[in-house]
Amino acid sequence: MVGLLLVQGVGEAKKKKACVRHKKTHRVARVVSNQAVPLLAGSIGLQRIVDEMNRHASAGVAIQSLRTGDIIYQQHANQFFSPASNMKVITAFAALKFLGPNFVYHTRLMTEQQARINQGVLEGNLYLQYSGDPTLQLSDINALFSQLTARGIYAIRGQLMVDASRYADEGIPPGTEQHDQAYCYGAPVSTAIINQNCLSFKMYPGKTGEKARLEFPYGVPLTVSNQVVTRATHYCHYSFKPQPGGTYALSGSIRAHASPVAFTVTISPGSHYGESAAATLLARNGIRVMGESLPAVTESNMQLIADAHSAPLSVLVVDMMKHSNNMIANALFKTIGALYHQTSANWENSSTAVVAILKSSGVDVAGMHILDGAGLSRDNRVTPMQLLQVLAAAYHDPNVSPSYLQALPIGGLDGTLRHRLGTRDVIGKVQAKTGTMHDVSSLSGYVEGNSGEILTFSIIVNDFNGGIYFYHALQDKLCRVMRVSY
Question: What is the pLDDT of residues 453-472, one digit of tens each?
Fold first, then answer.
């Protein structure tokens, strides 16, 4: 492979709070000012930085030449660490290796082979088959049903049947902190992933004395117990609390003529939101389900009516890696499990499938403990050397390498590295995946040395107290030492 780094203008969302941007500006300024101090090159310079990492933390580092295969530097490289989102280094490789860069998800509308349209009535059952597509939107499902209307169908003789069986309904992976599932980045995974299982809706005041009105996207409701009453008084207070079984409770009051209030919630697998969406959107398109009892058939005896498909995997991994998209990572993790074992995927059999793919690619998987594909589980355990082997395998595999390299954030230019490694001596010369959780910071990827030699590296820091930016700065400094030394 000639050349590692292709400069691409992939944008990143702006920071939500100006104060965060202000703090980061000062931190960058401190790092830039430190660059006036000459770097110690080679193993001496690397060792100085790693010693500083280990002063108040536990750090493991491994660096390898991709040209010779020689290990250039290692310290605690075979020690097991929690990798945070560096798990996506593994998930991206396993998905591209096993599924292939052209893999796409399909959400299908089907009916029996013998079913025919008779005066606007589909003489059969209607089947909606979800596939675990992490990019599926309510608008996609609505567009599927609108294709039935375009074909003149206004009624279904049989029943609407929804298949959401590719993934087991387990919710969040083992070892994930429970409060994470309340936020969109930690939304539970289901086969019927809709809007990344993160939904926004609005509450409007009603007439004085009446309940507030809830407005959901496309009219597809969540199970919300709404007890909020509209009041004329200025002193109103409401509360919104999750309940068991994926439901929510709204109580209190809202002021008459108040502006609408927006809520954003995650969708629990137990809420059966995929079924609700199908029924609601079918009716929205003016199609009636007559509900006659007609015999169901197997998938092999069905005909396809309409199909919504995702972008290819080569595109999905770009979002997953550059923006650390957890839903895409965990959906791919479970897709690998489902298709590898040809059964409904759970966290356990998905893990065994990924480990088997790594092992067949020459990665030493001894002691590796994988519980999810995104790195949200704090119980994941890998070594820097294992990540190094995955990165080397991805780089040298001609079927994986183009998509894999394109997906990684580029230092100083895009993704989660847009605001790191942006100084003139190193900008555009590091492609790596970040990983961040409480007391975990990791960075693994590739550096192009001044000589043109490509190095692969893995840095994982665990068990530190205090600010994470200190360890970001040390990781970036390691990359700069690699850059000037080789």
Answer: 999 999 999 999 878 999 99
Q: For residues 118 and 157, state if they share a domain.
A: yes
Tokens of 102: 């052209």
Question: How confident is the model over 413-439, as a mean pLDDT?
Answer: 96
Q: 77-115: per-residue pLDDT in tens?
A: 999 999 999 999 999 999 999 999 999 999 999 999 999
Dig out the tokens for 136 from the structure: 């599926």
* Separation of first and last alpha carbons in the chain: 18
- Pair 102, 313: CB distance under 8 Å: yes
Q: Which of 357, 448, 438, 359 is nearest to 411 (CA)?
A: 448
Note whether residue 81 is domain-resident: yes
Overall size of the chain counted in residues: 486
Where residue 318 sits, what CATH number does that domain have? 3.40.710.10
∠ CA(405), CA(409), CA(410), 5° rounding?
Answer: 90
Tokens of 261: 């209030």
- Answer whether 199's CB lies under 8 Å from 274's CB: no
Q: What is the DSSP string of 431-459?
A: EEEEEEETTEEEEEEEEE-TTS-EEEEEE
- Per-residue CA distances from 325 to 37, 164, 393, 466 (Å): 37, 22, 23, 26
Note down the domain range covering 66: 18-102+312-485
> Burial of 30 by CB count in 10 Å (0-12 exposed, 13-18 middle, 19+ buried)?
exposed
The model's pTM = 0.90
Provide the pLDDT for residue 467: 86
Rounded-to-10 torsion of CA 476, 480, 481, 486:
140
pLDDT of amino acid 15: 36
